[in-house]
C-alpha cells in the first residue's frame, strides 16, 4: 500500500479541465444519507435486515413514480448469495418495473419504508440489464477505412454528446448495451474531444452535465484535459523498426529475474543521459544507466519492471509548469531536517511521483515525454520498449486498476462522472471504499472488469509490453485476473503481432480491506492464485531475510541477513536464547522461500519436525502457499518500504564496516535470487542504493529517489532526514546513522557488491537446477541436509542437484559438514572461482569429510566435479 499526496490545485490551462461539470436543477434527496439498499438484478432488491420494519410496505421511488416491492421469503437465492456474499444475510424483495427499469436508472432512486429512506446501489442491475451486450462492444476510438467511430458506455446517462474541437456532435444510444457512439469523417483524426454526459450524480443530488475525457482514450492533450482521436495503428506513431522489433527470447515466469525501475529514477540525475527523466533515456545506449542495464542483462536479468507509466494524476506534465526545490540541498548536513522541508514545499508541483494514481489507464504518462501535448508520448514509449529490447531486456508494466486518483464529481474523476456509482466499489452505506489509499474501483463489476482486460490487451498488442505487475491484486477478483490471462493467451504473432502466451503476470496478493477473506468475491490473493501460473509477491522470506516487518515501530529488529543472534545490534531483542530461536525460525522461512514457497514441499525444520512448507508459521499464516515454482515471487526489497541498504543500515550494528554492509547486502539479495521461481530486485540495490532511510518515497522527489549510477556520487545515503510525513517517528534512529560518514560507502564496496551479485545471477540463470517446474521436481532435486535441531544458527545449506549452496550470514567463517557427501568431489563454482569476489574464493571443501567452509557474510556455490 502507499499513501498518495493530496491532489494539487488544477493548473490553469488554455483548454478547460477534463471532467468539468454543469449542474442542472437539483432534485430533492432522501431524508437519510447514503445508499444502503442494493438493486442486484432486474427483479431483485437486497435490503438490510436492520433497515426499517420488514412487515411494512417497501417501495422503490424514482423521478416518474415508484415500484412496489414484494418480500421474497427465504431471502436471496443460493446463486445470488454466491455472487454477492457480502449481501447473503440481506432480505430479498421482488421488484417488477414493467419495463421501466432503464428509465428509472437514469435518475434519482430512493428506497423507502416505514419513514426510512436511503439511496440505492445499482451496479448489479446495470450488469444484469446491459453487460451481456456491452461486454462485446468496442469502446473508445476505432478506425475503419480511416473513419473514426467513438463509443462510450453510459447506460444511466440522459444524453451524451461529443465535444469535438470546439463543436458539439450528437451521439446515438444503443438500447441493448447502453453504449453511445458516433462515426465521423477522416478529418476528425488528431482532433481533441470530450464527452458531455448528462447524468444523475448521487454525490451532489443533482442532474449534471459532465465534460469528461474518454476512459478508453488512446491519446491525450497535455495534463489530460482532452482526449485525442488517434489510431494507434497509424504508421506515424511507429518508430523506425517497430514492426520488425525482435525481443530477447521469452523467459518463463518461473525463471524470470526482474529489475524494478522507476522511469524518472533511472535517468533524472544521470549526467551521461541526453534525455534525463524521459522515455527516451532508454534509447541513450552510451549512458551510465543503459550500460548498467546491459551488464545486468548479460548476467541473466530478463525483465525490467517499470513503475506506473500510464497517465497519472499528480504531476504537471509540461516542464514549464513543474516546480523544483529552491534550496542548495547538497550543501546541507547529512542529518538535517531542511532537505525534506525544502523538497516537501514543491512535492505537489514537481516532476516526481511514483504514479500510483491513475487518471487514464491506457495512455502513456505525458510528463515522461519530450512533448506531452499529443501522441508523441505513444511513439516515445515504444522507443523505450525498443531501447530495453536492444539491451537484452523485456518490459513489464506496473498497472493499477484497483483504484482511481479521484471519484464522484472531482475534476480528475473520469469513470465515476460517466456512470456514477458503478465503477467505484461502494461500502454498505454507499460511500466509496478507500482501503487501497484512494477511491477503490470494482473490477467485480462487468464493465470495470472489461476495462481491465481491454487495457492490458492494448498495452500488449500496441506497445509490445511483455508482462504486467498488478498493484494490490488481491483487490481484484481471481476471475478478473484469469480473464486477463485468457485474453492474452488468445493473442498470436500472426494475428496480433505478439505471442500473448509469453506475457508474464504477477502482482501483490495481499488480503485486506473490505474484500478481505473473499468477503465479496474470490480474491486474487496469494493462496487463491496458487496453481494459476500468475505469481504473487512473497513477503515470508522477505521479512526473514531483512528482519522484522515493514511497520515495526523500532526499525532495528534484526533478521537472517542483518545479524540476528550472530551479530546483535544492541536493540531490545530478547535473551540470546530467544534470539537464537527467532533466527532458526527465520531460517525455516528462508528454506521455504528457496523452494519457491511451495505448500507441499516436505523437509525437516529447525526443531526437528517433518513439516510441509504450509506447516511453517508466518504471523499466523502458512509460509508455503505455492502449488508450483512460479506461483510466488521472491524479493528482498522493492519500491515500497526502506531500500535494502537502508533496512540494513538500521539493523546491522552501527560499527559494521562498509565492506561488510556490502557483503550482507549481496547475501540478502542472493537469498531471493537463488530461490526456485522468479525473483525481483529494486533497481540500484546491487549498487547499495539508498533513499536516505525514506520508507515511502512516492512523492519525495529526485533528491531522495534518483539512482546514482556513478559511485563517485555516492549511493544516496546521507541526503538529509527523510520526509516527516512517513518517517518522523524513525528520526531518532535515523539521525545518528545519517550523520555517520562511515555509512556512506565509497566506490569499492559499491562496485564489489554489484559484481558479486552479477556473479550469483550468472549461476542462477545458467544452472538448470534452479529452474524446476513442479513441486515433485523440487522435492526430488532440492534438500536441506543439515536442517534440524543441530543446524548452525546464521547458516542455510541447500543441496540442489549437483550443487551445494551455503548462505553464511554470520560475520565469521562457518563450516558445514554433510556426511553423506564424504568422498564426493566438489569445488567452488567456476563463476565464483574466477569471479570478482576475492573473499568467496577462500571458501573450501574437504572431500574426505564432506565439509564446506565458507567465509562470513558470504554466499558460496559449490559444484560437483
Automatic annotation (TrEMBL):
<dbReference type="GO" id="GO:0051060">
    <property type="term" value="F:pullulanase activity"/>
</dbReference>
<feature type="domain" description="Alpha-1,6-glucosidases pullulanase-type C-terminal">
    <location>
        <begin position="714"/>
        <end position="862"/>
    </location>
</feature>
<dbReference type="InterPro" id="IPR013780">
    <property type="entry name" value="Glyco_hydro_b"/>
</dbReference>
<dbReference type="GO" id="GO:0005975">
    <property type="term" value="P:carbohydrate metabolic process"/>
</dbReference>
<dbReference type="InterPro" id="IPR013783">
    <property type="entry name" value="Ig-like_fold"/>
</dbReference>
<protein>
    <submittedName>
        <fullName>Pullulanase-type alpha-1,6-glucosidase</fullName>
    </submittedName>
</protein>
<dbReference type="InterPro" id="IPR024561">
    <property type="entry name" value="Pullul_strch_C"/>
</dbReference>
<feature type="domain" description="Pullulanase N2">
    <location>
        <begin position="35"/>
        <end position="128"/>
    </location>
</feature>
<dbReference type="InterPro" id="IPR014756">
    <property type="entry name" value="Ig_E-set"/>
</dbReference>
<dbReference type="InterPro" id="IPR004193">
    <property type="entry name" value="Glyco_hydro_13_N"/>
</dbReference>
<feature type="signal peptide">
    <location>
        <begin position="1"/>
        <end position="25"/>
    </location>
</feature>
<feature type="domain" description="Glycoside hydrolase family 13 N-terminal">
    <location>
        <begin position="139"/>
        <end position="217"/>
    </location>
</feature>
<dbReference type="Pfam" id="PF11852">
    <property type="entry name" value="Pullul_strch_C"/>
</dbReference>
<comment type="similarity">
    <text>Belongs to the glycosyl hydrolase 13 family.</text>
</comment>
<dbReference type="Pfam" id="PF02922">
    <property type="entry name" value="CBM_48"/>
</dbReference>
<dbReference type="InterPro" id="IPR040671">
    <property type="entry name" value="Pullulanase_N2"/>
</dbReference>
<dbReference type="InterPro" id="IPR017853">
    <property type="entry name" value="GH"/>
</dbReference>
<dbReference type="InterPro" id="IPR011839">
    <property type="entry name" value="Pullul_strch"/>
</dbReference>
<keyword id="KW-0732">Signal</keyword>
<dbReference type="Pfam" id="PF17967">
    <property type="entry name" value="Pullulanase_N2"/>
</dbReference>
Amino acid at each position: 500500500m502507499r499513501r498518495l499526496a493530496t491532489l494539487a490545485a488544477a493548473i490553469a490551462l488554455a483548454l478547460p479541465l477534463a471532467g468539468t461539470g454543469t449542474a442542472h436543477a437539483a432534485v430533492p434527496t432522501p431524508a437519510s444519507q447514503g445508499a444502503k439498499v442494493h438493486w442486484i438484478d432486474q427483479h431483485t432488491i437486497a435490503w438490510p435486515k436492520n433497515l426499517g420494519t420488514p412487515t411494512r410496505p417497501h417501495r422503490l421511488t424514482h423521478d416518474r413514480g415508484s415500484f412496489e416491492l414484494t418480500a421474497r421469503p427465504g431471502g436471496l437465492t443460493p446463486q445470488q448469495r454466491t455472487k454477492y456474499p457480502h449481501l447473503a444475510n440481506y432480505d430479498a424483495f421482488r421488484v417488477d418495473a414493467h419495463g421501466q427499469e432503464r428509465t428509472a436508472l437514469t435518475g434519482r432512486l430512493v428506497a423507502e419504508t416505514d419513514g426510512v429512506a436511503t439511496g440505492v446501489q445499482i451496479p448489479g442491475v446495470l450488469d444484469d440489464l446491459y453487460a451481456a451486450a456491452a461486454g462485446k462492444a468496442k469502446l473508445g476510438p476505432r478506425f475503419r477505412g480511416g473513419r473514426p467511430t467513438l463509443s462510450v458506455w453510459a447506460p444511466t446517462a440522459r444524453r451524451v454528446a461529443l465535444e469535438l474541437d470546439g463543436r458539439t456532435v450528437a451521439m446515438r444510444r444503443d438500447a441493448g448495451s447502453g453504449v453511445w457512439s458516433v462515426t465521423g469523417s477522416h478529418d476528425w483524426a488528431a482532433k481533441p474531444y470530450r464527452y458531455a454526459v448528462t447524468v444523475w450524480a448521487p454525490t451532489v443530488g443533482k442532474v449534471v452535465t459532465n465534460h469528461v475525457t474518454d476512459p478508453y482514450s488512446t491519446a491525450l492533450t497535455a495534463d489530460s484535459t482532452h482526449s485525442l482521436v488517434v489510431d494507434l495503428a497509424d504508421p506515424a506513431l511507429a518508430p523506425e523498426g517497430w514492426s520488425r522489433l525482435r525481443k530477447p527470447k521469452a523467459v518463463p515466469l518461473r525463471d524470470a529475474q526482474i529489475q524494478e525501475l522507476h522511469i524518472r529514477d533511472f535517468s533524472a540525475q544521470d549526467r551521461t543521459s541526453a534525455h534525463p527523466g524521459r522515455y527516451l533515456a532508454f534509447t541513450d545506449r552510451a549512458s551510465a544507466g543503459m550500460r548498467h542495464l546491459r551488464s545486468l542483462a548479460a548476467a541473466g536479468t530478463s525483465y525490467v519492471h517499470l513503475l506506473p507509466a500510464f497517465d497519472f494524476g499528480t504531476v504537471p506534465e509540461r516542464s514549464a509548469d513543474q516546480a523544483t526545490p529552491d534550496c542548495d540541498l547538497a550543501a546541507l548536513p547529512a542529518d538535517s531536517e531542511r532537505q525534506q522541508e525544502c523538497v516537501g514545499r514543491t512535492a505537489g508541483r514537481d516532476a516526481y511521483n511514483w504514479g500510483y494514481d491513475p487518471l487514464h489507464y491506457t495512455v502513456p504518462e505525458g510528463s515522461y515525454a519530450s512533448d506531452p501535448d499529443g501522441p508523441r508520448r505513444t511513439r516515445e514509449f515504444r522507443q523505450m520498449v525498443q531501447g530495453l529490447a536492444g539491451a537484452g531486456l523485456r518490459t513489464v508494466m506496473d498497472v493499477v486498476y484497483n483504484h482511481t486518483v479521484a471519484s464522484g464529481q472531482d475534476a480528475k474523476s473520469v469513470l465515476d462522472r460517466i456512470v456514477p456509482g458503478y465503477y467505484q466499489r461502494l461500502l454498505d452505506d454507499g460511500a466509496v471504499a478507500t482501503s487501497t489509499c484512494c477511491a477503490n474501483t470494482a473490477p467485480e463489476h462487468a464493465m470495470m472488469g472489461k476495462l481491465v482486460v481491454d487495457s492490458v490487451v492494448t498495452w500488449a498488442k500496441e506497445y509490445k509490453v511483455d508482462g504486467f505487475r498488478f498493484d494490490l491484486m488481491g483487490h481484484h477478483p481471481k476471475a478478473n485476473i484469469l480473464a486477463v490471462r485468457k485474453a492474452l493467451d488468445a493473442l498470436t504473432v500472426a494475428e496480433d503481432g505478439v505471442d500473448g502466451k509469453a506475457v508474464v503476470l504477477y502482482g501483490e496478493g495481499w488480503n485486506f480491506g473490505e474484500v478481505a477473506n473473499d468477503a465479496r468475491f474470490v480474491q486474487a490473493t496469494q493462496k487463491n492464485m496458487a496453481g494459476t501460473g500468475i505469481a504473487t509477491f512473497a513477503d515470508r522470506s522477505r521479512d526473514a531475510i531483512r528482519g522484522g516487518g515493514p511497520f515495526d515501530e523500532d526499525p532495528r529488529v534484526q533478521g537472517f541477513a542483518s545479524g540476528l543472534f550472530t551479530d546483535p545490534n544492541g536493540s531490545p531483542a530478547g535473551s540470546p536464547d530467544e534470539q537464537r530461536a527467532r533466527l532458526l525460525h527465520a531460517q525455516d522461512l528462508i528454506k521455504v522461500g528457496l523452494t519457491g514457497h511451495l505448500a507441499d514441499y516436505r523437509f525437516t525444520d529447525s526443531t526437528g519436525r517433518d513439516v510441509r512448507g504450509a506447516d511453517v508459521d508466518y504471523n499466523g499464516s502458512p509460509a508455503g502457499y505455492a502449488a508450483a515454482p512460479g506461483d510466488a515471487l521472491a524479493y528482498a526489497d522493492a519500491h515500497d518500504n526502506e531500500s535494502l541498504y537502508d533496512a540494513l543500515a538500521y539493523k546491522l550494528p552501527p560499527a559494521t564496516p562498509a565492506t561488510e554492509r556490502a557483503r550482507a547486502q549481496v547475501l540478502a539479495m542472493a537469498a531471493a535470487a537463488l530461490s526456485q521461481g522468479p525473483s525481483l530486485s529494486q533497481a540500484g540495490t546491487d549498487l547499495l542504493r539508498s533513499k536516505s532511510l525514506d520508507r515511502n518515497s512516492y512523492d519525495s522527489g529526485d533528491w531522495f529517489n534518483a539512482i546514482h549510477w556513478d559511485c563517485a556520487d555516492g549511493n544516496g545515503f546521507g541526503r538529509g532526514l527523510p520526509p516527516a510525513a512517513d518517517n518522523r517517528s524513525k528520526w531518532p534512529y535515523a539521525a545518528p546513522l545519517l550523520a555517520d560518514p562511515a555509512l556512506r560507502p565509497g566506490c569499492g564496496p559499491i562496485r564489489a557488491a554489484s559484481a558479486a551479485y552479477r556473479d550469483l545471477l550468472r549461476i542462477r540463470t545458467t544452472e538448470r537446477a534452479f529452474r524446476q517446474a513442479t513441486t515433485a521436481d523440487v522435492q526430488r532435486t532440492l534438500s536441506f541436509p543439515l536442517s534440524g535441531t543441530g543446524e548452525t544458527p546464521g547458516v542455510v545449506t541447500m543441496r540442489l542437484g549437483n550443487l551445494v549452496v551455503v548462505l553464511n550470514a554470520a560475520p565469521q567463517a562457518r563450516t558445514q559438514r554433510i556426511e553423506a557427501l564424504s568422498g564426493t568431489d566438489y569445488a567452488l563454482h567456476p563463476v565464483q572461482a574466477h569471479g570478482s569476489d576475492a573473499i568467496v574464493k577462500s571458501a573450501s571443501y574437504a572431500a574426505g569429510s564432506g565439509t564446506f567452509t565458507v567465509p562470513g557474510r558470504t554466499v558460496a556455490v559449490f559444484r560437483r566435479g
